[in-house]
């Protein structure tokens, strides 16, 4: 079929490898879509013979080896999607030869080595995803020419250097997603975000950034996802973020943030009404819990009819889909990475700070809440009964505080609760029984000296002292000297008896012993009669 322009066999059960002679027989081929199959082997070097090729989609297969450098010599090439394979080696410098290249997705492979990003044809680039490899390099100011760039995802690599200050400026007016998480970028976060920015995702988690939080982010009116966690940022709480009406995820964990959290600005128009993830854990905040903000967390109070199949992210009108991801603390002990965040997912994590005061009763209004972590603070007072209203809660960590009182029986109504940690407080009384509480172990309750329950191997049934009966009282009086004298008398009697036996045997006088035995009933009767008298 020499005139064939499109081959689309995606999402089948095809296996085997690409034929070497494919492009010789299909000289006019423009689109080759074989994604989501079971194909393997290498990408043939003869792919460059498809001189009319515009789109190559081989993602989610098992291809191995290197990318043929000749691929990017195809003048018409605009989309290359090779993600989720086993490709390796370094990226060919020839990428810069594809001057019409708009979409490049090489994520989730085993590429390594240094990437010459300044060779990219940034003017035509719209969607770049190099995430989840072992690539190195620096992001030069050549990116400032990427006026059409919508998504730039370099996450989970070893990129370093400073972040160019044109990020967020009008020179990148089309930028919606900037994901640099888990790299080695250093320096400060640019303070050049301008009004009218289309940025909706900024993820710089897990780098070496320091300095202050850029207040110019307040101009990013469309910002929905802001993750600046796991850096060295030294600042106070960014009160100005409450003006971001679209903000759904705010993660500032593991920085050097300090001070108390100010009250809500009454002049603010929105104040976190769409916020779903609020994580400021592992910092140096003190003072009371930010309860004035809690009452505005409307998205955590109801699900608003969203379906569980919707994920947070950005859908390009022309190119691929970007999905937000986040690191959270699970069970207060270890981090886990959520690759796809359900739109109905909600979480509050204020752990490992120095917050004081009581847990507000209003916490029970967050009926859509999935996870709640107040551990390792200085909280006092009782656990509010209103927590029994958190019907969607899957994990609850209040450990290492100074909470007192009993565990509310209402917590047994939380049918989805799979992780509970109330350890190292001053709780008392019996651990409630029923529902999920039957599955929790000692780790959930240890460190509460006055707490009882089968999980702690301490019976919840009070020890009742039984009053002795009249029949046994006289017996106990007569034998109140205990068991030690009885044992001593028994041993001495046995020793005396055996000695007398051998004396009689060797002395030949059994008659005296016989007469003594005959007289024993008489002696006993005499003592009985004397006792009656």
Task: Reconstruct the topology from this structure.
Layout: E1 6-8, E2 15-16, H1 22-25, E3 31-33, E4 38-41, E5 55-57, E6 62-65, E7 79-81, E8 86-89, E9 103-105, E10 110-114, E11 127-129, E12 134-138, E13 151-153, E14 158-162, E15 177-179, E16 184-188, E17 201-203, E18 208-211, E19 225-227, E20 232-233, E21 249-251, E22 258-260, E23 277-279, E24 284-288, H2 291-294, E25 313-315, E26 321-323, E27 326-330, E28 334-338, E29 347-349, E30 354-358, E31 371-373, E32 378-380, E33 395-397, E34 404-405, E35 419-421, E36 426-430, E37 450-452, H3 470-478, H4 483-507, H5 510-532
Parallel strand pairs: 1-3, 2-4, 3-5, 4-6, 5-7, 6-8, 7-9, 8-10, 9-11, 10-12, 11-13, 12-14, 13-15, 14-16, 15-17, 16-18, 17-19, 18-20, 19-21, 21-23, 22-24, 23-29, 24-30, 29-31, 30-32, 31-33, 33-35, 34-36, 36-37
Antiparallel strand pairs: 25-26, 27-28
Describe this structure in words.
There is one protein chain. By secondary structure, the protein is an alpha/beta fold. Among the domains are: 114 residues, Ribonuclease Inhibitor (Leucine-rich repeat, LRR (right-handed beta-alpha superhelix)); 208 residues, Ribonuclease Inhibitor (Leucine-rich repeat, LRR (right-handed beta-alpha superhelix), Alpha-Beta Horseshoe). Helices cover 12% and strands 24% of the residues. The chain has five helices and 37 strands. The strands form six sheets. The chain has a 16-stranded parallel beta sheet with strand order 1-3-5-7-9-11-13-15-17-19-21-23-29-31-33-35, with no helix packed on it. Strands 2-4-6-8-10-12-14-16-18-20 form a ten-stranded parallel beta sheet, with no helix packed on it. It has a four-stranded parallel beta sheet with strand order 22-24-30-32, with no helix packed on it. 39% of the residues are buried.
